From TrEMBL, chain A:
Pfam families: B3_4, B5, FDX-ACB, tRNA_bind, tRNA_synthFbeta. GO terms for cellular component: phenylalanine-tRNA ligase complex. The lineage of its organism: Bacteria, Bacillati, Actinomycetota, Thermoleophilia, Solirubrobacterales. The keyword Thylakoid does not apply. It comes from Patulibacter medicamentivorans. One of its GO terms (biological process) is phenylalanyl-tRNA aminoacylation. The keyword Transmembrane does not apply. Residues 41-150 form the TRNA-binding domain. This is Phenylalanine--tRNA ligase beta subunit. Belongs to the phenylalanyl-tRNA synthetase beta subunit family. Type 1 subfamily.
UniProtKB/TrEMBL annotation, chain B:
Belongs to the class-II aminoacyl-tRNA synthetase family. Phe-tRNA synthetase alpha subunit type 1 subfamily. One of its GO terms (biological process) is phenylalanyl-tRNA aminoacylation. The gene is pheS. It is an enzyme of class 6 (ligase). It comes from Patulibacter medicamentivorans. Signal peptide: none annotated. It holds the Pfam family Phe_tRNA-synt_N. Keywords: Aminoacyl-tRNA synthetase, ATP-binding, Cytoplasm, Ligase, Magnesium, Metal-binding, Nucleotide-binding, Protein biosynthesis. Mg(2+) binds at E273. Its cofactor is Mg(2+). One of its GO terms (molecular function) is tRNA binding. This is Phenylalanine--tRNA ligase alpha subunit. Residues 106-374 form the Aminoacyl-transfer RNA synthetases class-II family profile domain.
Length: 832, 376
């Protein structure tokens, strides 16, 4: 909302306060300043009224004229002017030497093709008034009484043309501030400046004829209006005859221009002017283009069409609000008028519509059509029906003054708004204000603050002790939708009188536990830190991807991982669905980094992934879970080593991997499912009661998939943290590591290729008995000395007893049992 | 014999003294004291001597052997020390050559800032919760007191999920609405739905923050279609607007420095009443609006000369929100007459941009590791 300061000054007495000061006060009382700007010429004091005494053709330029212009000095000045319409006798605006134009250029003494020029005669556009730039602005033609103005008079004295403008952000709950008078009231409350009477009241300068209800009755000869929908609570219309359509007077054009509106013609300009003052949109029909003289306000049926003012053919949908005459729809109600009944150059009779509409309905229509005009955006907020009468009143005066049109007949005023129950006052408990805000505000101060905003406040029991009183508050009509409860009144008190100086206090936590991260939150941080500690960089990928990502991963359409959640209104096709796996983000980011010359990508991410299937925790919502995934430019064992570190750091003991060739995006020979057997008592969410839980995948990315992302060999793991974190033990019990030395030996055992290392270790562990502390594979060897189809696995075994040093007999006993078990359970033979 | 022993000893000691390397000394040890050497052989031959000679000769030979042994060892130690010194000098490396590289990982800046914020609020007495990123229109808007025509519901401001054949219909109160694509489901536009979910699940008093990823269809230097927020909610019998200011002042000082002040500016949010935006005094210009530390004292670019930087939106929980929670719970635990509290929501990226001078938010999602490593 653009608020020209001089216009504001007509509505509230801001004399002696500059724009910065006003903006600062508004800023801390709830009306945020977007920016403070200057409209028009930056040095208005250097622009004066001049009189063209003589013009001569420029000796060396066909299109230029050399003018002698009286500007109040002892001698006329010479100005070279290129405008075709400049002529002796004209009264014109002259930008003198030193003037700074709106674009920052400075007018200097210059020579144009050899002729001295001491200033510039301005066009309307150069002054910031309207678009006219086909010649200089002849004030004698457009400003009444211009010929009597002495040359040298500052132009601002007779035509305010430059102004400071506050550009304010109006929150959606304050449609009253989409009118300058609403802003004026805020300024008054925020600064203490006196608010002037509303310009639509008699106190504000209107005569009785403009009043509400209309003393001339509610009928207009030849015209009638029927409202056939409850979504138009009030529709008013007045008829004006004797209208002459033409350009608006300069003062009006200047005001609209400063407020950011383009002047169009005097009738339309009046509707815009009144809208800017009252916040209430108006629409002018050419009364002679209303077929049959009957306007019907109704809800449209699907497929009806009209051509709107912007010359677009538009099709409306059922339930949208329209105004129709005998020839069909003639206006898209509250959003944009129709071309057929538009006011044009030859219009002499105007029917002025000012109506009140159901905000949400208008909002939907405007949104569907992408048509948030000034009118539509105000109507969509939901205005007070009273505002219709204000706008009619002010417009009636201005149409007469500006177009010569006279009101004929009464005021049509239909719609059901008057049947609404009368508004009840709101009770405001004095103590409640203090209790919520945390600082004492006396009842008297509460009343003062509310009164400054136009509320009517009555203290129903003035004798009640301080702090225990209650007051009744009536809300002004334009605030009625926003202020309906005691808390809303408290907010008004807070924003005008409390918030700026509130002393801070600290609350007390009344839960009898200290605030801490949960075990799962701590475990998540630990998991991230482990990967960081191993040199991985965390990344943050997009939750969005394109619909083809699943296919690029090689997933068939019926794979559950391919069921991506689709957005109804994506920003782009590249971001049309939610990522079904974090792998997509890692591959995208790896590719981008490699393209930028990073040759050893080591990254991980923690984030949410989504699937178009019911979430067991919220069956009507898509499945989502938190995942952690890592990608390294290396082989499976690099990724597995990272995973081992991660699970080890989290204290997850019972985990294993199981080879799989069923994951389309992983190398079929180098991929595994990651399984965890929950320790006793851990929360269960798997399928079988005792089976290990699959918490993720590990493997090298399928070379075909990697190639699609321009990647070499990369290995990944992906873990579902929602599954894993509950399995992380909260505490680890103390375990004595023993003071007696351990005993170690190595074994090399030859087994068939099909026998996994895990099963060899398992067999050894089973045979090791209580003395076995640790057993693991440290090498796998194929080749010379090992039969084809077999592999030699080197095992490292560590034994320990808590209470003694083991003797040779015990050691060799365990060794023999292990060797026997390897032979029996995995067909292993000792090597050499 | 005795003379011969003395002779051998003297010669041996002279040879040892003349040796210059430990290798020579090793040769000498063999020659003087080895199995074939004369002196040890004399000792071995003592038993064959006449009895009266056995004592003196044996004693002299033994003394000579021990003396030679000691002399040898002393000389070896002396030479070995010198040789080691010499070897170490020869073994000098160029210490300015680079070390063997260990990769240094790092958290993403967003995670780093999220943890900083979490830790500050843990210290102020808030628990930490997370919530789902897909939401219903009910939790994201309706229960948070958004009017049916509130612009945040527009398709230009909210990502709606397309209807899905795999999911049951979401139960909705009121008219089906044009903007939500018919699904009633969306990507949460703020972390505020967790206010409702938390209060539905837990009895007062509660003090929680909710960090998490949120979504809005915006894309420019200061907006990305996904970003992160931290929601705050404190509800008890006596939580006031002054408490909100105190908590956020503590937060601002922890994150931006001990000298910061905060300012509340009235604003409008559907789910708080009164609502305030919170500004922190500018840490680049110390709240003056002018960079006195820079040449020419220019206007501060960070706060645009105002001395204040907006960091978050907040307010007292609107009674309608508490009422909606009460309806879902079917009890009076959250009756607006019984409890009151404040809520706030801040953008993690915004805090990160301010704290670390990130010029363009989109950089954080380009994930160029060379950029991210700056904060490792």
């Amino acid at each position: 909302m653009r608020v020209p300061l001089s216009w504001l000054g007509e509505l509230v007495d801001v004399a002696g306060r500059d724009a910065t000061e006003i903006a600062a006060r508004l800023n801390v009382t709830g009306t945020e300043l977007d920016r403070l700007l200057h409209h028009g010429i930056l040095t208005p004091e250097t622009v004066v009224v001049g009189r063209v005494l003589a013009t001569e053709p420029h000796p060396d330029a066909d299109r230029l004229k050399v003018c002698r212009v009286a500007t109040g000095g002892d001698e006329p000045v010479q100005i070279v002017c290129g405008a075709p319409n400049v002529a002796a006798g004209q009264v014109v605006p002259v930008a003198q030497i030193g003037t700074v134009m709106p674009d920052g250029t400075k007018i200097k003494r210059a020579k144009l093709r050899g002729q001295v020029s001491e200033g510039m005669i301005c066009s309307a556009r150069e002054l910031g008034i309207g678009d006219a730039h086909d010649g200089i602005l002849a004030l004698d033609e457009q400003l009444p009484g211009a010929r009597e103005i002495p040359p040298g008079t500052p132009l601002s004295d007779v035509l305010p043309h430059a102004d400071d403008v506050l550009e304010l952000e109006i929150t959606p709950n304050r449609p009253d501030c989409l009118g300058l008078y609403g802003i004026a009231r805020e300024v008054s409350a925020a600064t203490g400046a006196a608010l002037r009477p509303a310009p639509w009241t008699r106190a504000g300068g209107l005569d009785e004829e403009a009043g509400d209800p209309d003393p001339a009755g509610d009928a207009i000869d030849g015209f009638s209006v029927e409202v056939r929908t409850p979504r138009c609570p009030r529709f008013t219309a007045r008829l004006f005859d004797g209208v002459t359509v033409g350009p608006s007077p300069l003062w009006l054009q200047a005001r609209l221009a400063a407020a950011g509106q383009r002047p169009i013609n005097n009738v339309v300009d009046v509707t815009n002017y009144v809208m800017l003052v009252t916040g209430q949109p108006l629409h002018a029909f050419d009364a002679d283009r209303i077929a049959g003289g009957l306007l019907v306000v109704r809800e449209a049926t699907d497929g009806e069409q009209l051509r709107t003012l912007d010359d677009q053919e538009r099709t409306v949908q059922a339930g949208e609000l329209v105004i129709a005459d005998d020839e069909g729809i003639t206006s898209l109600a509250a959003v944009m008028g129709g071309a057929r009944s538009e006011v044009h150059e030859g219009t002499t009779r105007v029917l002025l519509e000012v109506a009140n509409w159901d905000g949400p309905t208008i909002h939907r229509t405007a949104q569907r059509l992408g048509l948030f005009s000034e009118a539509a955006s105000r109507n969509a907020k939901g205005l007070a029906p009273e505002q219709a009468a204000w706008a009619q009143a002010l417009a009636t005066r201005l149409i007469h003054e500006v177009t010569g049109g006279r009101k004929v007949g009464g005021t049509i005023d239909v719609g059901g708004w008057r049947e609404r129950p009368a508004q009840q006052p709101i009770a405001l408990r004095e103590a409640r204000v203090t209790r919520l805000l945390g600082t004492a505000v006396s009842r008297r101060r509460q009343a003062e603050l509310l009164a400054s905003l136009g509320f009517m406040v009555a203290d129903t029991s003035p004798e009640t002790a301080e702090g225990e009183g209650e007051q009744l508050v009536l809300v002004p009509s334009e605030r009625r939708d926003d202020i309906t409860r005691e808390i809303d009144l408290i907010e008004e008190i807070a924003r005008i009188g409390v918030v700026a100086d509130l002393a801070p206090t600290l609350p007390v936590r009344r839960r009898l536990t200290a605030a801490t991260l949960t075990p799962a939150q701590r475990a998540r941080r630990r998991a991230e830190d482990v990967l960081v500690g191993r040199g991985l960089q965390e990344v943050a990928g997009w939750s969005f991807t394109d619909a083809g990502a699943a296919e690029r991963l090689g997933l068939s359409a019926d794979d559950p991982r391919a069921a991506a959640v689709r957005l109804d209104n994506p920003l782009s096709e590249d971001h049309a669905v939610l990522r079904p796996t974090i792998l997509i983000s890692l591959l995208d980011i790896a590719r981008r980094n490699r393209a930028r010359g990073v040759d050893d990508v080591r990254i991980f991410e923690t984030g949410t992934v989504f699937r178009d299937a019911p979430d067991p925790r919220r069956p009507d919502m898509p499945f989502e879970h938190l995942a952690i995934a890592a990608l390294v430019q290396d082989d499976l064992f690099a990724a597995k080593g990272l995973l081992e570190s991660l699970l080890g750091a989290l204290g997850i003991d019972g985990w294993s991997v199981e080879a799989t060739d069923q994951v389309a995006f992983l190398h079929p020979g180098r991929a595994a499912r990651v399984l965890v057997t929950p320790a006793g008592g851990a929360r269960r969410n798997g399928d079988g009661p005792d089976g290990p839980l699959q918490v993720g995948l590990l493997g090298e990315v399928h070379p075909r998939v990697a190639e699609r992302w321009d990647l070499p060999q990369v290995a990944v793991f992906m873990i579902d943290l929602d599954q894993l974190l509950p399995l992380v033990p909260a505490d680890v019990d103390f375990r004595d590591v023993g003071q007696f030395p351990d005993a170690r030996f190595d074994l090399a055992v030859i087994v068939d290729d099909e026998v996994t290392a895990a099963s060899v270790v398992e067999a050894a562990r089973g045979a090791g008995g209580p003395l076995l502390e640790q057993v693991g594979v440290f090498d796998a060897y194929r080749g010379t000395g090992i039969p084809e189809g077999q592999v030699s696995l080197a095992l490292h075994v560590r034994l320990r007893a808590a209470d003694r040093t083991l003797d040779d007999e015990e050691i060799s006993g365990v060794r023999e049992r292990i060797v026997a078990a390897l032979a029996e359970r995995v067909g292993g033979t000792l090597r050499g | 014999m005795i003379d011969r022993i003395a002779q051998l000893r003297a010669a041996g000691e002279a040879d040892v003294a003349a040796a210059t390397t430990t290798d020579e000394l090793e040769e000498l040890r063999v020659r003087l004291l080895g199995r074939k050497a004369e002196l040890p052989n004399m000792l071995r031959g003592v038993s064959e001597l006449p009895p009266e000679q056995r004592g003196p000769v044996g004693k002299a030979a033994n003394q000579a052997r021990q003396a030679l042994q000691q002399t040898l060892e002393a000389r070896i130690a002396e030479l070995a020390a010198g040789e080691l010194d010499a070897r170490l000098v020869a073994d000098r490396v160029d210490v300015t050559l680079p070390g063997r590289r260990e990769p240094v990982g790092g958290l993403h800046l967003i995670t780093r800032v999220r943890r900083e914020i979490e830790d500050v609020f843990l210290g102020l007495g808030f628990d930490v919760l997370e919530g789902p990123e897909t939401e219903t229109v009910h939790y994201n808007f309706d229960a948070l007191n958004h009017a049916p025509n509130h612009p945040a519901r527009d398709r230009s401001d909210t990502f709606y999920l397309a209807p899905s054949a795999n999911l049951p219909a979401v139960e909705r109160a009121g008219d089906p609405r044009a903007e939500d694509g018919g699904s009633g489901r969306l990507l949460r536009t703020h972390t505020s739905p967790m206010q409702i979910r938390t209060m539905e699940r837990e009895d007062p008093p509660i003090a929680v923050i909710v960090p998490g990823r949120v979504y809005r269809p915006d894309s420019d230097a200061t907006h990305t279609p996904q970003f992160h927020q931290v929601e705050g909610l404190w509800v008890d019998v006596d939580i006031t607007l002054a408490d909100l200011k105190g908590v956020l002042l503590s937060f601002a000082r922890s994150i931006f420095g001990d000298e910061r002040e905060v300012r509340l500016r009235p604003h409008f949010f559907p789910f708080t009443e009164p609502s305030v935006e919170v500004d922190v005094s500018c840490f680049a210009c110390k709240g003056t609006g002018i960079r006195e530390d820079l040449a020419g004292h220019p206007r501060c670019g960070l706060c645009k000369g105002t001395g204040w930087i907006e960091i978050l939106g907040s307010g007292l929980v609107d009674p309608n929100v508490l009422r909606s929670v009460g309806e879902a719970r079917g009890d009076d635990a959250y009756s607006p007459e019984a409890v009151q509290g404040f809520a706030f929501g801040m953008g993690i990226e915004r805090i990160a941009m301010l704290r670390y001078g990130v010029p363009d938010l989109r950089l954080l999602y380009e994930n160029d590791v060379r950029v991210l490593e700056q904060w490792a």
